[in-house]
């Protein structure tokens, strides 16, 4: 399916919206316990249960509106369903907290395999957004690969060492801020290895 023209705000809204809803819902029910079918569930588990169909609806909407889903979006949706589902089914929040670790490890390993083959698989995903020279893509891919592994380690430290509430704040704001800051610090690389406009 060919890519479609959509309002510029729509894609980020569909990607970030479910996370914002998750965070707001968690704040509302974080201290409550619910009894369903004779079984007690913490608020975090119920919010996770609601997040699964929400992220699926958002992913389908993105596909319908843009005509395209990146591998990262597909894998993320699948892992949310699998590990979010395990958390709800087993009434164990640890599975959902592990999900970011696995996502970042998976993408880090994937980029690493590409690097071992002398290729930048990051380029296949982001070339339309950031046109760079070949050398620039290889440098950026190595940095992003290391960054993914660092995020995976950081998520493990946070969820294993701190409260659920701390992890939710970290997941909602900390990871987002870390990704933003990382790419902001790559400005020198983007400038050095930018592809020149050949029309000039």
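-> sequence recovered:
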């Amino acid at each position: 399916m060919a890519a479609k023209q959509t309002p510029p705000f729509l894609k980020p809204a569909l990607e970030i919206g479910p996370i914002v809803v998750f965070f707001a819902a968690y704040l509302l029910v974080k201290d409550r316990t619910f009894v369903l079918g004779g079984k007690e569930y913490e608020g975090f588990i119920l919010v996770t249960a609601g997040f699964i169909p929400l992220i699926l609806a958002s992913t389908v909407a993105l596909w319908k509106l843009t005509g395209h889903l990146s591998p990262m979006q597909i894998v993320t949706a699948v892992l949310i369903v699998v590990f979010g589902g395990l958390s709800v089914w087993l009434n164990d929040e640890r599975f959902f907290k592990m999900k970011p670790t696995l996502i970042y490890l998976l993408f880090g390993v994937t980029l690493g395999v590409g690097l071992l083959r002398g290729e930048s698989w990051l380029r296949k995903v982001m070339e339309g957004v950031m046109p760079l020279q070949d050398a620039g893509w290889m440098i950026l891919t190595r940095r992003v690969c290391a960054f993914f592994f660092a995020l995976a380690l950081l998520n493990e430290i946070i969820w294993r060492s701190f409260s659920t509430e701390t992890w939710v704040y970290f997941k909602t704001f900390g990871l987002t801020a870390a990704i933003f800051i990382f790419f902001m610090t790559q400005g020198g690389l983007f400038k050095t290895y930018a592809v020149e406009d050949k029309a000039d």
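The chain has two domains: 1-91, 93-195.
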